[in-house]
Amino acid sequence: MRLGLQSLFYKNAWHPNDRYRGKTDTNSKERVIYSGRRDSSALQAIVWDEDAFLLTLSKETVFWKGGALPIGRLEVTLDAPFPVEVKLVGRVGDNLHTPTSDVLLEQKTIYVTKQRLQQVWIECHVPVEAMSGTYTGTVKLYTHTMFEDERLEDEARFTLIVKDVVLPEARDYRFYLDLWQHSSNIARQYQVDLWSDEHFTLLERYLAVLSQLGQKVATLIVSEIPWSGQGSFHDWEPADFYEYSMIGVTRKRDGSFQYDFSALDRYVALAERYGMAQELEVFGLLNIWQMPEDGYGAIVEGYPDGIRVRYYDEASGIYRFIREYEALAAYIRAIEAHFVEQGWTERARILADEPADVAEFMKRWKSLKQLAPSFRMKVAINHVEFLQQQIPDMYDAVPALNYAALEYHQLMEARAQLPGKILYYVCCSQPHPNTFIHSPAFEARVTPWLVERLKLDGFLRWSFTCWTDRPLEDVYTRGGNWPAGDTHLVYPGAQGWPMLSLRYKWLQRGIRDYELLQMAKEAGREAWVEELINGVFRFTDPTEIKMEVSATKFYSDNLEDYERLIREW
User: Fold this and answer.
1) Residues 61 and 135 both lie in one domain
2) Which of 364, 398, 476, 509 fits a disulfide with 305 by CB distance 3.0 to 4.6 angstroms?
């Protein structure tokens, strides 16, 4: 059994003809990592053997259910009072069903097939009160079979160098991160009632993890299935992507409507507790995804959008959907009034997700604005005409990366007229940089660096927990239109806690890099920051970014180009 050390960006997609890679990748026995304070630094241990074995991180007694089998026990120590996180790395299928390392597992023991390497995530969390200096860590691999005494099979060492720089709290990051939340999906995965106490217990755990990235935005759903299930009903094996409203509606016996905002208010309060409610992003009032030929069309006569509001009719004892214009208008006005009463109007954004037709979109926005004049518009743009034309009332613009690059100079010119922020986003349509299972590891890290290079405010991605029905098994969705990993950055753990992914960790590292870049500029090191940025990117003008060319033609995949940021601090 062999042990070696690799960088935190080590990634393995296992192929049978690659069976001896573990033998070569365990040759490295030493590694140097760097960290600031209130920061962390990570590496990976690689364990490999010619034959199958059990690998455990636990000191508890372990036997293999199939009989006698070699057992390796990995032990990590650090000569500092810092927390050290050690996790087994599990595999999920990529687009070609190739078992690819991604999920940080809850379990402490794993069966490893012969000639297949096993990764172990090791992360040193450096507290704010830590002393800068050099610390030494050891990774030891003990082995035994059945009732044998353990023996030290292999050993590796790493050096942790803590720099004299303190990162801000995650809630104070300047990087503007907007990862949409899919709360209904979480309730489905754990089979709890929507908006119940059990549901909110789960939501808190997921928001806590999201907040550690510096998330700034809370996702609020105020009508039924605004994405129409992403059209998954067309797939040979549909996935349940429906998101349901946070607002309860009742029609009283006297014909008046009563609105229950308690779930919405509770969610906002929870997001505020974790510092991720700088913006309240409202879905379900503008640019509802409609597929009328499949039954997912507009249902309110006289209103140009497809808003669907379900209510309980006390008089008849049944549930209905609002179909009359005046009832819908009253509902929209009630939402605005509630936001005004709560003092939320300044940070509320009505999100339009990828509108396709400018004229139709403006018709819908005008109708909404007449009913709720205080609302502000935010648009996720995947049609270039929304950048080429001036869209009245657009407060925040979020173009897809390919359009942000194509119309970059016009985007910068429009910035002065835009009251809010400019982010960029990626989804299934942008091959790179992205956070798919098959994406090169550096792409998650380079994402925040690209925000700095383009002089934008932040980054948006549509999915944090938009899982398929079996997120650890379904490799990709929508007939292959969504590459594996497009729907999520974390996985649902069996005990009700999220399991992080390598992609989450790599993105987190990139966000912290962004904070260090801002701190360096504030310290008068603008020239050094520019040197670092030029060392990472291969283009001189953003319009040179092309989705169809190799990713490494516009960014570096050399670890040292990124590590200079903390190493040279």
Assistant:
1) yes
2) 364
Distance CA 117, CA 428 (A): 30
- Burial (CB count <10 Å: 0-12, 13-18, 19+), residue 109: middle
Q: Length of the chain, please?
A: 569
Identify whether 121 is part of a domain.
Answer: yes
Is residue 140, in this structure, part of any structural domain at all? yes
Shared domain for 157 and 179, answered yes or no, is no
175 lies in the same domain as 40: no
Tokens standing for residue 490: 């974390």
The domain tally of the chain equals 2
**What residues make up the domain containing 398?**
170-215+377-561
Residue 364 CA to residue 288 CA, distance in Å, equals 10
Q: What share of the chain is helix, strand, coil (3-state, %, to 5)?
A: 30, 30, 40
pLDDT tens profile 151-177:
999 999 999 999 999 999 999 999 999
Q: What angle do CA 197, 202, 205 make, to 5 degrees?
A: 130
pLDDT tens track for 200-257: 999 999 999 999 999 999 999 999 999 999 999 999 889 999 999 999 999 999 999 9
What pTM did the predictor assign?
Answer: 0.97
CA distance 225 to 203: 19
Q: How far is CA 474 from CA 68, 93, 467, in A?
A: 33, 8, 9
In a domain, 335, yes or no: no
DSSP class of residue 363 equals H
Q: What is the 3-state secondary structure (H, E, C) of 236-250?
A: CCCCCCCCCCCCEEE
10 Å CB burial of residue 390 (0-12, 13-18, 19+) is exposed
